[in-house]
Design goal:
mainly alpha; single chain; 300 residues; 7% strand; 64% helix; elongated; two-stranded antiparallel sheet; 11 helices
Length: 300
Amino acid sequence: MTRSLEQIERDQAQLVQAVTELAARIREVYDDYLNALGNALPRQLAQASYQICTHGYPEAFLRLRGDQREQLQKDLRQLGKQARAAIVSAGSALPSTEPDGTSANAERAGDDEASLATESGELRPDMLEAALGEQIQVNPEALMLWCQAREQRIAQTLKSLSGEANTLLQTAGVLPGQVPKPVLAAAVDADESEAGSDPPNTLSFVLEVPGKDESARATDGGEEPEFEDREVPAVTTPIAAIRLRLVEIEFADPDLSAQRADVRSLLERLSPLRRRARDLRRARSVARAEAAWRATWFED
């Protein structure tokens, strides 16, 4: 039996209240988590840099003058501070205004989701926050989009930080200069599940460059020499670099790991609310369609 619009409206109001309370809790927990992550990042960056300089390329690091080492370390510390600020700001945009819990407002986010992503599927936090506003407080789909945008911003910050740290190490002469920057960037972007047995927040791989055969066979009569067509072994260079991984940063900090568990727990509570919202939207559409049918149907 189809529920009345009045009953659906009451159920919708209860859902909005539940989402509002959960959104407030998510904001609180995310703020704590991001602050802890921001505090952990400089330490993890310093440890990864230490590993690269002392175990990955100790000879290259020792070739630096004392002032060059100090400048490199200063630049890495400054980079860590910038990363902390970027991470902490990732959770600062959730509106704190009192939500409007009307059904019309609570239904908009699902329709807007497609326009808030890039062609690659990456959410655009700036457009999301501007378009949804207080929807994040009352609509579970909008709230989930907000959480996903925060996670994407964290991941992008870690990738950017890794790339900038590798650039500093390469510019200073620690990382080999012949390694193309796109190769390092591709390695940082690789699937984190491929971490293997590398030290925390570092990666190692082998750069393979095709060998060149410059030998030639002399010919009679002063003609141009003929180059022999033969295979030459490729030149391989082992590479070590920084790749910050969220799972390893959390693993190294028990408090941060516990806060991450709190975030996951809240996101699990969001899933049934999203299903409930979809059911209510469907029920509301059915009830309105039935009412519209009855309003225009007349027996002959």
